[in-house]
Write a structure and sequence with these properties.
It is a single chain. The chain is built from 8 helices and 4 strands. By secondary structure, it is of the alpha+beta class. The chain has a 4-stranded mixed sheet with strand order 2-1-3-4, with helices on both faces. Helix 7 links the parallel strand 1 and strand 2.
Length: 183
């Protein structure tokens, strides 16, 4: 099947998708990639490992292997990211994750929604958000959840080109701008 994804991240994501589909491990790999994306957000050290041009190919490969083993990642995810690291392409891993999850959602007939919250959401809250988005969009929605404590509270929801920012941080920024206009 021809893929619409282009560029480095798209090519890697397409290759991983085809391998995962062949091994019937799409859900396991998707779960690993979502966990890795969250770990990259939460860990400055892991982010540095992925982005640093100073670290050698071997150091990045060993570091990523250790992280994935500790996470209990699927063997295919470990092999794939090992190859990405040995090819010195870890700098693009976030884009690869996004492209893989978008391709998975598209092939399943889902729309992808990126939801950022200030705290970790419970399964019940996640289900409520998924149901509300499904009603609003009119089709099945795959939710990519991330946590950003800087939001203070509330949510930021992105579906396609639409974004709803209902975070306390944004409300405080709008209030600050309004107060500047008064004084």
């Amino acid at each position: 099947m021809a893929s619409e994804t282009t560029g480095l991240a798209g090519r890697y994501a397409s290759a991983l998708y085809e391998l995962a589909e062949g091994e019937k491990a799409l859900d396991a790999v998707a779960g690993d990639l979502k966990s890795l994306r969250q770990a990259l957000i939460e860990s400055p050290d892991l982010s540095r490992l992925v982005r640093s041009p100073v670290l050698s190919r071997d150091e990045q490969t060993r570091g990523m292997a250790a992280v994935l083993e500790k996470m209990g990642a699927h063997a295919l995810t470990q092999k794939f990211l090992g190859t990405v690291a040995s090819n010195r392409r870890l700098f693009a891993v976030n884009a690869m994750i996004t492209a893989f999850l978008a391709q998975l959602a598209a092939r399943r007939g889902e729309v992808t929604a990126d939801v950022t919250s200030a705290i970790e959401l419970s399964d019940a809250q996640l289900t409520d958000i998924s149901d509300a988005l499904k009603k609003a969009v009119g089709q099945k929605v795959s939710v990519n959840l991330s946590v950003d404590p800087a939001l203070i509270g509330g949510l930021i929801v992105r579906v396609g080109s639409r974004m709803i920012d209902n975070s306390i941080r944004s409300k405080l920024q709008r209030l600050q701008l309004a107060m500047k206009g008064v004084g």
